Here is the input.
Amino acid sequence: MTRPGGLWQNWGRSESVRPQFVERPRTPEALHRAVGAAIRRNLRIKPVGAGHSFSGVAVAPGVLLDLDELSGLVRVDERIGRVTLLAGTRLHLIPRLLAPYGLAMPNLGDIDRQSIAGAISTGTHGTGTQFGGIATQVVGATLITGTGELLTVTERENAELLPAVALGLGALGVLVDVTLQCVPAFVLQAVERPEPLDDVIAALTERMAAADHFEFYWFPHTDRAMTKTNTRLPESAVRHPRSRGATWVEDDLVGNGLHRIACLLGHTVPALVPPINRLSVKVWGDRAFTDVSSRVFATSRAVRFREMEYAVPLENLAAAVEAVRALVRRRGWRIGFPIEVRSAAADDLWLSTAHGRATGYVAVHRYWRDDPTEYFADVEQLLLEHDGRPHWGKMHTQDAAALRARYPRFDDFVAARDRLDPEGRFRNAYLDRVLGVPGVVDPAEPVTAEPL
Here is the structure.
């Protein structure tokens, strides 16, 4: 293994670590050898994708497995629309890989920089009451367990583990590849516009049910909701994409450039935040276009931030948003980043935030240079009171005792972890907090630190 000689940080700069060793496998065989070598040396192991999790789920103090080069298409079954991808494949690369086969992922989030393994393992999701998170697209996976075994999990082989492996927090093993159920390629008609916030909240459940994909952003200190409604159309539909110039102005200049300046000004002079937000809702949104689904779902995000997101029962969503709005007003905070509100269908994955219930999501953000502690803590308490579950890849303070009561299959997942990783090779501080410490002795520290 190669000694890293440096500090690993996640994208949001909320987590960092100096791993003891770094390995960059390029093939499944090299990945298998790297995991086996770490097991023989009693080292903890943690794969890392794009570093887009704001929580400590991917922190690797022992062996950091950088999977960036473990990328690409393994195989395609065009007849049933299933594709197998290497674990490190970034989401933004997948549409190009699927295009020759006329396929697409059914739904995506609004950021596409993550690896496919990282996205499913932390519960990344998009929006739409008829669509689950990305992990619900998983119909198979290959992983390396804590004993070094290469394990195949599909609907026919080790099927009982699929609801755990599809969204496994990196606690069950190192994913080698992932098989997704895709759909025929399609087009999205996007309508984005500002609307009165009161009207949107009052009809929130109905708006979400009426659209294929509906979400909105709210800039605190304003009375406007920036709504986004996407309608699915056949791949053959006429497209009216944004021009290259419009994309540069709307995404690069306004969405990233001017927003970065606004965040810096608000960080330096908090009193400027309310007028900046009021200006932002005048220059953002209010557009319509039609394009390939992947180009509509995801947007470019270059302004660094930190995020907390909670999932609440869909019927509680409007009340939860109103409560957050009232809290911001009552506390007198100056919040420059918008609050994002989305939805997802119920699913049966054991640790999915949408397990067993139609779900609404409330995500709060802060510019990375601002201290999010007080804001996140108070919003977290409020959303817990609305029966919330925290997003695994985003900042929160919950532990195993609290989470067990919120997930009916929590103990089943922990049992699967103990079975697949009996010596705790894939543990880290975050997983110990949210899943509990297994009844094993910590792996011994290596006697020496020479390369393997």
Q: What stands out?
A: The domain at 73-184 is CATH 3.30.465.10 (Uridine Diphospho-n-acetylenolpyruvylglucosamine Reductase; domain 3). The chain has two domains: 73-184, 186-395. The mean pLDDT is 93. Residues 41 and 226 are 53 Å apart (CA to CA).
